[in-house]
Amino acid sequence: MTRPRFHLAFPVDDLAAARDFYAGVLGCAEGREMEGHWIDFDLKGHQIVAHFSPEECSAAKTGDVDGKSVPVRHFGLILEWDDWNALKDRLQSADADFIIEPYVRFEGKPGEQATMFVRDPAGNALEFKAFRDDRMVFDKGLRETG
Questions:
Q1: Which Gene3D superfamilies does this one have (predicted)?
Q2: What is the rounded CA–CA span in Å between residue 63 and residue 139?
Q3: Is residue 146's pLDDT more than 50?
Q4: CATH number attached to the domain at 1-56
């Protein structure tokens, strides 16, 4: 792979529950692991690592976006529109712990995007979004609204 990939390590309080969520619900392939300590997952080509560290698992602080309490500390992916919808259906079927239910922001406007926030079993917040027009991902005109 020639493009850069990001690496993210995050705390969990139950490695088996992390495996169930990341591999089972999200469909991430599993990579290396050190039993009882950490597990690597392939999140669409990016390496994320669940580290057993229960003392670091706590409720995230929130900020206001669109009148919703968005966890300040979160990570996730920007997906293609159809892939976002497929993941939404998969998460709903798995009775995922939604922090913010799936919805579309700025519908019919520049910057239109679908978004949803879920918690993994350790309380880590993940956001999955999709832009109707991928060119809007870094558009500075959206600073005021998105």
A1: 2,3-Dihydroxybiphenyl 1,2-Dioxygenase, domain 1 (3.10.180.10)
A2: 21
A3: no
A4: 3.10.180.10
